[in-house]
Amino acid sequence: xxxxxxxxxxxxxxxxxxxxxxxxxxxxxxxxxxxxxxxxxxxxxxxxxxxxxxxxxxxxxxxxxxxxxxxxxxxxxxxxxxxxxxxxxxxxxxxxxxxxxxxxxxxxxxxxxxxxxxxxxxxxxxxxxxxxxxxxxxxxxxxxxxxxxxxxxxxxxxxxxxxxxxxxxxxxxxxxxxxxxxxxxxxxxxxxxxxxxxxxxxxxxxxxxxxxxxxxxxxxxxxxxxxxxxxxxxxxxxxxxxxxxxxxxxxxxxxxxxxxxxxxxxxxxxxxxxxxxxxxxxxxxxxxxxxxxxxxxxxxxxxxxxxxxxxxxxxxxxxxxxxxxxxxxxxxxxxxxxxxxxxxxxxxxxxxxxxxxxxxxxxxxxxxxxxxxxxxxxxxxxxxxxxxxxxxxxxxxxxxxxxxxxxxxxxxxxxxxxxxxxxxxxxxxxxxxxxxxxxxxxxxxxxxxxxxxxxxxxxxxxxxxxxxxxxxxxxxxxxxxxxxxxxxxxxxxxxxxxxxxxxxxxxxxxxxxxxxxxxxxxxxxxxxxxxxxxxxxxxxxxxxxxxxxxxxxxxxxxxxxxxxxxxxxxxxxxxxxxxxxxxxxxxxxxxxxxxxxxxxxxxxxxxxxxxxxxxxxxxxxxxxxxxxxxxxxxxxxxxxxxxxxxxxxxxxxxxxxxxxxxxxxxxxxxxxxxxxxxxxxxxxxxxxxxxxxxxxxxxxxxxxxxxxxxxxxxxxxxxxxxxxxxxxxxxxxxxxxxxxxxxxxxxxxxxxxxxxxxxxxxxxxxxxxxxxxxxxxxxxxxxxxxxxxxxxxxxxxxxxxxxxxxxxxxxxxxxxxxxxxxxxxxxxxxxxxxxxxxxxxxxxxxxxxxxxxxxxxxxxxxxxxxxxxxxxxxxxxxxxx
Amino acid sequence: xxxxxxxxxxxxxxxxxxxxxxxxxxxxxxxxxxxxxxxxxxxxxxxxxxxxxxxxxxxxxxxxxxxxxxxxxxxxxxxxxxxxxxxxxxxxxxxxxxxxxxxxxxxxxxxxxxxxxxxxxxxxxxxxxxxxxxxxxxxxxxxxxxxxxxxxx
Lengths: 881, 153
Known about the structure:
A: 34 helices; B: four-stranded antiparallel beta sheet; four-stranded antiparallel beta sheet; globular
């Protein structure tokens, strides 16, 4: 990257900067004219005498002459304003383009950082650098040349004017400039140092915050919140101190500047006045000089401000840039895909004297040499810290060796582009990352290395796309269409999306994840618009399910939704809405205050009764829970009312017993009503929702659906036995009812039942396909650790690499699952390479060859039969387990 | 059956007979009602116990595995409590219990029971009293069994 901000600006925006400069210079005469014209209007048009005057050959009387000049003035103001607008927009755009370029460049560099570098810098440090810290740079770039040129030019013009009036006064005007030019930067340097410190401290603060958030569980588990808060307070204190010092110095500079600016008039008054008294200078000239000096102040101030911003930006740029040039960055040409086809790699993987050391001191891998054919399965075993993890990363070229070389086929791996290492080799570590997207997106990541098929665009979209490409190009950004179809089916050995999904399911079953994905499918939602076939067939499953319910044993497990019956396993509000709320409008929280709901309840004559029920619920809760200590876990688990709210309800109950329910405030009535909404008769067994009340709720249900205003029609998806409910999960749609409370092992039995129905209809694969849409949450947090590992392995297998490198990739799996996955992978990769750093040496017997690592060195290598004897390192490792 | 009826039921069980009804109501409210179909197993002999069951409706067989095969030693009926030893101390289930007909039970989990006891010590005292009485009765029976039979020397 360019070492200074000005080199950066000059290299990427030279023509634009010069253009801005030219436009600025062009605007000078116009600006000058807008200042000059009023003078002419006053002196010649209003105060002038010898009329008519000749303007472009026309003889004009005084009034027309005045009008002509006034309109000319108006025109000039317009032109001047327009020009200013144009320059401002142009400069803004220029700055933003350069900022975009800078940010993209920084991010691209992050992509090329050597992996070990991320042990030293965290995302908490990198993020503010790319986002907030460089932000002022963009604002500055547009002004970088034009502002000093413009304001400097103005300054010179005014100075010239003063010098013409009187050289002595001119000298007086600039007498203190040298002081400012020499002293201010010196003071400024201190401020700069502090500013640098501040940037660093803020960055560390954001790093600490990021780390604290990431490890928040540990903080709770160790009661360490006080410690981390003290840490943050300490850092905030440091920032405060620095900031305070900056203020002191910065405003001292300002004070000095202002003082000097006022000192000059002092000279004018004293020296100029003396000359005027002596008669050596006309009074008029002194006034003119004073006026000119006033004008002088503004550009001079602008120049000083510019200087300060420049310093600020320069520091930020320097500080950011030095952070983005770590040693050992990947060469850009290794990452830039030239679009050439990448053939399979064959032959051998040969490591000769490979070493890896960290910070030039700790040696992690120490002169490892071995040759393995790429059609064999190799196990690497060793204790933790033996170097097997680093060795597998070296083999996958995730890290570059600090000594020796790894050759793959005919190539030195250090020179292979990522298009080869990333496509023909797959690497799965023990902490493989899962991105916040669907299962499918995560699986297909390895197939998306370049846009394969353009998306279809209409004329308008094509124009926009072309514009986007042009914009990206001027800012030095990549021009690929992120929204194109990037999935390379061929790389997975299939022809289209359908067969790729089939293949994905095969691979998932290979890694023992089929039942997980089936569950995800059941728990996921499906949009009927996207998968009409599936939803149609799910409705069929619902019908079959209904038939099964004829068996009383099964009927006891599920209470179906029925438009004409109250569902005793659902809450009262669910019974009332008889549908799934799609957004906040009818969400349970605010339902008791929803005007439409209240209106319906009143119409159905239910309102008062439900408030009464709510009152009884509150009464029972107060009776049951008031003897418990506040914050007792029973509240959380069983109570309708939290322990904090309990006293309020006690007051409320007291109020009701004195004044009656009808005299309550609306707000309090809504609270009671809300309590009644939560009642589930089968679960709570409070006998408050009587059959008579249930019948009226059903009546209200009908009214609710019939009178729902059109504007709220999209707020709720009503239950209907012959329509798919897009807001519910697949399982909800199959069951079309509620699991009955209080049936032994009901969840398990219903699970088996669903599974049975789906198998009968041959729907299991379709449900699993829907499972591919499951959103895995941030960093895969909605998956278990084992599921994340399985997903990572499936992702690696799907792209059909020639060499699969696994580094303790199955540690989170249970032993049986681990064994199945290992067998499946070894079978799947018959004739292709697997290098597997095992976490247990005992598993090594299934591999063709074994490398035993100890203290970073290859202690032994050979077949299992050769090494499995007394006295070998392998035997020692196996016995230690 | 509502909470109030369940409270009545609990009061009829000696272990809970003297406990304050409002506490029993909380116990009932926090406990789950669980229905078993005929032949469904509540728990197996040798399992670690985590709950006691109070029979609300139906019957359950208490079966003990013996070298000569399973033997039904008792049939629990309405108001009987099953497996209460397991919520008082950590011993494996001494018998298998299987629903004989459709069986409705109230499940008092060990966890819930202990939290109730710690929260309301009075309840612990009542239960202690009940257990002491049982012990006394057992001792009595033992003494009777050990006493020399008249005319047997």
